[in-house]
Amino acid sequence: MRMIIWTLVGAVVGFFGMYAALSIDFKAGFSPIGFELNIVLIAITLLLFVFIAVSSTQMKKKAGLTLTGVDEDERDVWQYKKFSDLNLCNTIALIVSIVALGVSIITDQPAWLLLTSGGILLLSIVFSMLVPGLMKTVYPDRELPSASEKNFAKKLLDASDEGEKFVMLQGYYKTFNTMNLSLIIALMLCILYSVGTGDSQLFSIFIVGLILIITNAQYLLTIRNK
Question: What is the model's pTM?
Fold first, then answer.
């Protein structure tokens, strides 16, 4: 009964939400604010670069200290959390820099801004290759694979203990569920945008749908064959 009630509530909310969305004028687009948006995205990426550089320096400095007992345990916890924050910022920087370059191209920005966005993206790629190497700084006594090695993710999983694998499993499972929901919402938004503007987003709809099918098939076939 509770499931039926929530389904009805969801249907009502979805109906009125779609009606409200269709009444919005999507045709304004981003072109009028493309320049300002590009500058903001580049500024955000640069701030993330600063955080990554400062955090990396702090981690290397703390890793060189000789500590024992409680101090060593506290440093390990700090290093772990700092490395997680650094990875998150690195991922966000890469995504934002890609969006910045996309905005530059789509909204026809000046050549210097296009080149700047491209340079920021290249720098993001460099950071994304260097940051995983800090794992050896966080865990100097462990035999961890190098970020440049083939099948790095698999080798890292193999080098992790049972507790670490359990934590990874929780994170991956939550991410999988969130990604599924996000892509379904993205499909609906692409459809709404197509209806609201008259600009077909069928290519985006097919791509998102294909990603959903491939990821879910890979997950379900993997657990089915175990």
Answer: 0.73
